[in-house]
């Protein structure tokens, strides 16, 4: 009898349990689809640190928070993250998504003519590889005006244009994360590609812009 009572008392608590995220992360609810590994809930956080333009370093920031480098799936998620974020007005955040080495080669061959590569290396296919299988990148692609969109690698001489390096790592403009004095989003913003070595760039591999935060994602606790 008493064990029945306990069962009766604890059941509602079990079913009403809200998923929680660790400190620094915000819970987002998602529509499960094949493109986000049927994810219903995900924890997203933006973590500030120097030189997140260096992809390995940005990745390590997420790993230290038991998460992987991630990205927002919708405008609503960005607004939630924006409200939760205590970041200053830095310009860019590193997000998941990196051009595959095979595709970088193809774009280096084609880039001088600014032509989109079809097939495997088209953005609709496997141009970018993602570490976070639980987020659908379609929304971020909709923010990407063109790609790759950084041309420091260009060197032209009279006859032969050639390219040294292609920017292959995705970043998100933090206009999304900036709140105005009235607490509302300031509006626009887009996604872009940048070089992946951050401030450690060199002659062979150009420096990226300064990117001082990274999106990390993980399952709820
Ligand atoms: C974000 O904050 C603004 C202003 O405080 C509020 O109006 C809005 O509903 C919040 N959005 C979300 C998704 O929490
Ligand atoms: C997809 O989701 C399942 C269930 O949550 C998880 O176990 C699996 O690791 C996920 N797949 C990938 C590739 O992350
Ligand atoms: C232009 O660059 C190509 C590739 O490096 C080289 O083969 C060619 O000689 C250069 N042409 C001139 C006019 O410098």
UniProtKB/TrEMBL annotation:
Protein species of origin: Caenorhabditis brenneri (Nematode worm)
Keyword field: Signal
Signal sequence segment: 1-16
PANTHER family the UniProt entry points to: C-TYPE LECTIN DOMAIN-CONTAINING PROTEIN-RELATED-RELATED, C-TYPE LECTIN-RELATED
Domain of life: Eukaryota
Protein name as annotated: Uncharacterized protein
């Amino acid at each position: 009898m008493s064990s029945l009572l306990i069962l009766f008392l604890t059941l509602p608590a079990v079913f009403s349990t809200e998923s929680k995220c660790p400190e620094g992360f915000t819970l987002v609810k998602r529509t499960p689809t094949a493109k986000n590994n049927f994810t219903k809930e995900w924890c997203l956080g933006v973590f500030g640190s120097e030189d997140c333009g260096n992809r390995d370093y940005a990745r390590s920031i997420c790993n230290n928070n038991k998460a992987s480098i991630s990205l927002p799936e919708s405008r609503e998620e960005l607004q939630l993250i924006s409200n939760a974020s205590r970041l200053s007005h830095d310009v860019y955040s590193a997000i998941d998504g990196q051009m595959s080495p095979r595709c970088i080669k193809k774009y280096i061959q084609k880039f001088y003519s600014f032509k989109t590569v079809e097939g495997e290396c088209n953005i609709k296919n496997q141009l970018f590889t993602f570490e976070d299988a639980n987020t659908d990148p379609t929304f971020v692609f909709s923010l990407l005006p063109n790609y790759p969109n950084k041309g420091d690698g260009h060197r032209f001489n009279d006859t032969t244009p050639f390219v040294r390096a292609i920017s292959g790592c995705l970043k998100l403009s933090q206009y999304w994360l900036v709140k105005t004095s009235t607490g509302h989003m300031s509006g626009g913003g887009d996604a872009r590609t940048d070089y992946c070595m951050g401030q450690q760039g060199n002659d062979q591999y150009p420096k990226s812009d300064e990117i001082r935060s990274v999106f990390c994602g993980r399952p709820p606790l």
